[in-house]
Amino acid sequence: MPIPNSIAAYAPDMKAWRHHLHAHPELSYDCHQTAAFVAARLKDFGVDEVHEGIAQSGIVAIVNGRGEGPTIGLRADMDALPITEATGVAHASTVPGKMHACGHDGHVTMLLGAARYLAETRNFAGRVALIFQPAEEGDGGAKAMIDEGIMDRFAISQVYGIHNWPNAPLNRIMTNPGPIMASVDTATVTLRGRGGHGAMPHTTIDPVAAMVSLVQALQTIVSRNASALDQLVVSVTQIHTGTASNVIPESAWMTATIRAFTPEVRKLAEDRFRAIVAGQAASFGVEFDLDYDLGYPPTVNTPDEAAFAAGVAGELTEVDADVAREMGAEDFSYMLQARPGAYLFLGTGPGAGLHTAQFDFNDDVAPLGAAFFARLVERAQPLAAAAK
């Protein structure tokens, strides 16, 4: 079944919306100009309700169908990244040091396209809650919106989101019936010893030697503590210490990212990380500070909803209903903890990767994303069911 002609006809408008958003990126919760643009479009489309200022700059818009029924939630993230753009495109960021390097401008555009179609046709029962969310990039805007009560306030019964995926086959929609993205936790460790002359190490308590041993020991969490059948990443990503070649420093500092797909493996990694840091510090006689920050949980699709979403996608395009998990993280995970639903990827073909200065969303896939959202609503809440 092809993309509806009306959504296909929106393509020039969708491209213009996306280019405007791309040129005016905003970070974290400070998405007020983006939200104002979104709210203006939604009001132009004639949606029934536009609720602004949720989690500072988030929006929930309601479109009523033509019959009684539940409320389905559709989510798009709005925030950009602190990256200086290097695409050279005409619609490049006009804000120094900020750019849409993850395609959230495209996600907003797809949901706006769906909103326009659904407000025009209303070929469904119940309601649609269109969720435009700030602060996905590390600040947990989804959780903030949930904490402000959107799931109960708008009686959302299930929720869906989609993310563009560069270098996956163009127009392929991908999901799976379980964990699709990992949790992300961040550990920061400071080791404090006693500094001194590099030629007299016996007079010091060397935090550098302790840090080198600690980094090596942490690798055993994956290789010796977790099952070989589990998927777990423990990556030390920064080490900072020292000021000169002949000075043993007072302290050393490191950070690590820890990724897992289940609460059990996530907890195992945390427990072993804490034990190894304490043990290594004791063995070298250094003091330590450990800040273990629990970030986004795993993004876990509910099987029935994932299968349903894949079936809907299959009416429009090629589908992979059992795509491999990704070790990246997503705060849509909080929405899937609150309600059943699914998260999907939309292939955008060859191009620069996410979170790079060369990235630009592929406008050609936007009508498909909008059509998928719209068809999802019509299939989840059909008018025929409301009439029975």
Descriptive account of the structure:
α3 runs parallel beside α4. The protein folds into two domains: 266 residues, Zn peptidases (Aminopeptidase); 110 residues, 2-Layer Sandwich (Alpha-Beta Plaits), CATH 3.30.70.360. 46% of the residues are buried. The radius of gyration is 24 Å and the shape is elongated. The longest helix has 22 residues. The mean pLDDT is 97. It has 388 residues and is an alpha/beta fold. The chain has an eight-stranded mixed beta sheet, sandwiched between helices. The protein contains 13 helices and 16 strands.
Labels describing this entry:
24% strand; four-stranded antiparallel sheet; 2 domains; Alpha-Beta Plaits; Aminopeptidase; elongated; 36% helix; eight-stranded mixed sheet; 388 residues
CATH superfamily of the largest domain: Zn peptidases
* Strand ordering within the main sheet: 1-2-4-3-5-16-6-15
Extract low-pLDDT stretches.
none
CATH topology of the largest domain: Aminopeptidase
Helicity, in percent?
Answer: 25-40%
Computed structural class: alpha/beta
